[in-house]
Amino acid sequence: IHGTQHKVLWETSEDYATPYIISSTKRYNCHHGFDRNAAAKRKHNEAKENQKVDHLYITDYVIIQDTKKFNCPAKAIMKEVVYFTDFKLINSSNYRKKQQSKEIKYSLLQKKDVVISRKIIVEIDCLNDHKNHPLGKIELLSQKIDPRLSVKISEYIKDGVSNVREMRRLLNITVNEMFGRKNLPSRTNRRFYPRTDIIRSHMVKERLKQ
What we know:
- The protein is α+β, with helices and mostly antiparallel strands.
- It is built from 6 helices and 4 strands, in the order ββααβαβααα.
- The protein has helices spanning about 40-50, 55-60, 95-110, 145-160, 165-180, 195-210, and strands at about 10, 15-30, 75-85, 115-125.
- Strands 1-2-3-4 form a 4-stranded antiparallel beta sheet, with helices on one face.
- A hairpin with a 4-residue loop joins strand 1 and strand 2.
- Helix 4 (about 145-160) crosses helix 5.
- The radius of gyration is 28 Å and the shape is elongated.
- The termini are far apart.
């Protein structure tokens, strides 16, 4: 803790006031929040467009969502608070608080032994603060396909599978083998039961690799 980097604040109760500082703060945005890499992605996509070879079958299946950012404002904030319990004040006038704050900073600057108490405070926005995307079970509909299924699609394409319906049947068998019939995920879980257009898009991508 560096004495000159943090402002000394005061937590006041009926009996006394306790000085503290907020030593660190971290903000965690909703994973559907603002896309901070939007400019870089746009530049990358423009470069890809300029280099694209004019094949019609490439443009038929531009379906896969390249981002899951929906500008949701919801957030969680985590603060580490450090209390200086030896510097409590009973008669906490503004003057005494200023003097005590100076004493705390001086003690920290001189690296004196100071009794402290740490606390982590977490502030989480409520569900109503989430915007522009579904919540709960509905959100399962927007999940990405499981990587193990992507591998299976690649294998089946190499084996000559070209029909989307047949590919779905094979993927369902794969999911049954992964979980067993008694522990299968919900049919709304798109991670393991992707939509037809998503399966088709993955098939097209795999064909282009070969």
